[in-house]
Amino acid sequence: MNGNTFWAPPNIKTAYHRDSTKAKLFRWKGGRVTEISNDTSSIGSVYRAATVFTQYPDTHHLLAVEFDAETKNVYEEPGGWKVLSFKHIHGPGTQNTWRSSIALFGDAQQLAAPGSSQWMPQLVPKIYDYDPGQATTIPRSAGLVGNLPILFALPAFSAMPDMLSAVLTWHLRPNTWVPHGWVHGCEKHRGMIVTVYLDPANSKTSTNFLLDRLEAGEWGPFYQP
Q1: Residue, of 2 and 32, whose pLDDT is higher
Q2: Which of 156, 146, 73 is nearest to 105 (CA)?
Q3: How far apart are CA 153 and CA 144, in angstroms?
Q4: 135 pLDDT higher than 80
Q5: For residue 58, which phi and psi values (nearest 5 degrees)?
Q6: Mean per-residue pLDDT for 217-225?
Q7: pLDDT tier, 141 (very low <50, low <70, confident <90, very high otherwise)
Q8: Would the pTM of this model clear 0.70, i.e. be above it?
Q9: What pLDDT score does 216 carry?
Q10: Measured between alpha carbons, how far is 97 from 141 in angstroms, rounded to an integer?
Q11: Which residue of 17, 142, 163, 205 pairs with 159 in a disulfide if CB–CB is 3.0 to 4.6 A?
């Protein structure tokens, strides 16, 4: 259990036994996601990884660490499992426009501006929506950016595991989420490991430098408002 008395995943790597037959590998190239052979010998080095769990039905919050929990003990990580949070980034555009950056060390528990009906609550649970508090002016959303493995985990959680290929290949587009009508995949204590690799077949754009810029939102939001 975590500090809020909600369920939390194990803290030791030996507690995880991933079913390799269910692992899938996808390539994002030319604005399209395609499923490819699950052969890691054909891909490059790891850019970034994350392990993400739901805490459903205790709460709709998500817990994550920024590594593969099968390779490292979570108890060795300061703070252990972390609740998904956000950094609020001003702009672009008008004075009251804000972008939300998904992070594990963010300074806020809610979005910087009201979530889009295009992707909330299908991708981002409603519990993370903007809280106006005493605000007299509601900020305008400039979309969602941030940690790439978590941004990919969100659509994976949006449907049951057997729909993963369909979800990523049909509904994930550059800067855009296309909503679907399938049953939501937020099952009890469901978890996944998401790893983003550099792609030798896409070497001009699949670099640490360019992926850092993609996470920062320099080419616009990953999920537009």
Answers
A1: 32
A2: 146
A3: 14
A4: no
A5: -65, -40
A6: 93
A7: very high
A8: yes
A9: 94
A10: 6
A11: 163
CA 30/CA 120 separation, integer angstroms: 26
Is residue 123 within 8 A of residue 155, CB to CB? The reply is yes
Query: 113 pairs with which residues across the strands?
Result: none
Distance from chain centroid for Cα 214: 14
pLDDT band at 94 (very low <50, low <70, confident <90, very high): low
Q: Please list the alpha-helical segments (H only) found in the chain.
A: 148-157, 164-171, 208-216
Residues 161, 167: contact at Cβ < 8 Å? Answer: no
Q: How far apart are CA 184 and CA 89, in angstroms?
A: 29
**Cα dihedral sign for 160, 166, 169, 175?**
negative
Check: CB of residue 153 under 8 Å from CB of residue 194: yes
CB 103 within 8 A of CB 146: yes
Residue 165 has phi, psi (to 5 degrees) of: -60, -45
The one-letter amino acid at 116: S
Conformational region of residue 14, where left means phi above 0, alpha means psi within -120 to 50, and beta covers everything else? alpha
Model pLDDT for residues 21-65, shown as the tens digit of each residue: 788 999 998 889 999 988 777 789 999 999 999 999 999 999 999
Q: Contact at 8 Å (CB) between 82 and 105?
A: yes
CA distance 162 to 168: 12
**Cα 74 vs. chain centroid, distance in angstroms?**
19
Token output for 158: 């949006």
Residue 66 — very low, low, confident or very high, per pLDDT cuts 50/70/90? very high
The residue among 196, 194, 193 whose CA lies nearest residue 9 is 193
Distance in angstroms (rounded) separating the CA atoms of residues 134 and 61: 24
- In the numeric block, the tokens 């009906």 are attached to 117
